[in-house]
Amino acid sequence: MALAVGTAAPDVTFLGTDLKPVALSSFKGKNVVLAFFPAAFTGVCKAELCTIQGALSRLNAVNASVLGVSADLPFANAAFAEANGLTFPVVSDWNLDAIRAFDVELANFAGVEGLTRSVRATFVIDASGVIRYVEVTANPGVEPNYDALYAAVEAL
Fold first, then answer.
1. Where are the domains of the chain?
2. Among 2, 45, 49, 119, which one carries the catalytic annotation?
3. Is 50 designated active site?
């Protein structure tokens, strides 16, 4: 089960598309939308991240940064972000450290024995690093509740 509202967000480090580390703690003082998605270049993941991209100015207006997070390699994330016009960071959790720390593992993804990815999960983390909203969808084929997500960010 994913980390709960009121929990301090773990200080995890991702790998950016430029192969440089991106520490969650580097966003201290900003609200953060952390959108875990199972795999680049899949239909629902594209729909989710493009929908968030469409709301980016709304989120940025309330001091929120967005990070898309997948276990895909940085090169795949870079191609995915470019192909879909994503202007927020799409970072790699290639070693599954963040996926495990936030407790959002999805074992045997797409029926591939031993392939672990993340469930579709969205966390809103406030400027002090505390989780204020969590949504884990019923299955990876279901998009998050965007209205609830935006309301949670705007309430901070």
1. 34-154
2. 45
3. no
